[in-house]
TrEMBL record:
GO terms for molecular function: DNA-binding transcription factor activity; sequence-specific DNA binding. SMART domains: HTH_ARAC. Keywords: DNA-binding, Transcription, Transcription regulation. The keyword Protein biosynthesis does not apply. Residues 234-332 form the HTH araC/xylS-type domain. It holds the Pfam family HTH_18. This is AraC-type DNA-binding protein.
Amino acid sequence: MNDKPLFDFSNDKNHDSCWSFTLPEAYTGIRLPGAGIYTLNGGFGYFTFQGRVFKNVSIWLNNYLVFSRMKGRALLDLPMIEMSFVLGTKTDFEMNSLGKMMARGWQFNIVYDTHMDAETQFEKGAKIVTVDIHYQLDVLEGMNEYYPDLFGPLLDAIHAGRPMKYFHKYIYASPDMVKMFKRLFHALSNEYGSASGIEVLAVTLLLEGLKLKRHNKYMNTRFDYVLHDKRVATEAIKLLKADAMDFRGNQFYAEKFAMGQTRFKTCFFDHTGTTLKANWLENRIVEAVDLLVNTNERITQIALECGFASVFKFNEAIRKYLHMEAWQVRRLAQGESWIAKKDRC
């Protein structure tokens, strides 16, 4: 694991530069308490690296502020397993080893590199903030026991000594990853926060990042758009519950959110795993089961109250979702055996 910044630049030919171990006076960004600090100052601007090293991971908050074009060499002494988040970026930079960085805010990539000794070029005006998490190999080996399909490809590259980017380009984090990352950053901001808790969050972030490739979700969608779609699905469920007696159709609900029907149906399915009508029907069944279990109302009356046209339709729906008859649900809830009655039928 690297306990020094990923980038170690030799002096740029066009500017004098030097390393220091304090943040520059002009620095106005986030400060991590208890972090080791490395700063490269020069006429080109400054790079700051704030790192906290734990048993199995090290986490770096990096700021790149470039006043004039800068060219140097990036050095990597040890193999690196890294998950890199981009919190913000203005313009880009080129790095021969891993390609041109074009990432936007809240995008990330997972990389493994064995050795880096490459020309790196920062364009004038570049302003980039990243958080890089470096992992011990033991962490991946341990997780591979439980998630071999996710960690296997990364471990194969590491054992073969073959550099790789897990994604071909930086992708957007999912809303859950963003929430998790914010929890991690909050923990990092406390110098005396739980080290084991921070490591667990860091490893969980890696797991969630690897899952995105398998599920192919969110990869090209900004996380704020995903959050919007999630809110749409949540509000749609509320409308369905309010319309328990009458399903109004996909078009009606799509118009409520000023969305096309196809877009709305896709959005709802992505966030619930069901269609709109299936969710509406499930709501009615949940209400019916509650009445079966907690009241003595006749089954015929419950069927009508929950909007079913007949007891037959009601029982058909109950069988589909619970694999038993309505009267069986009631008897089980009362702690009685329904087998004897079934035998008598």
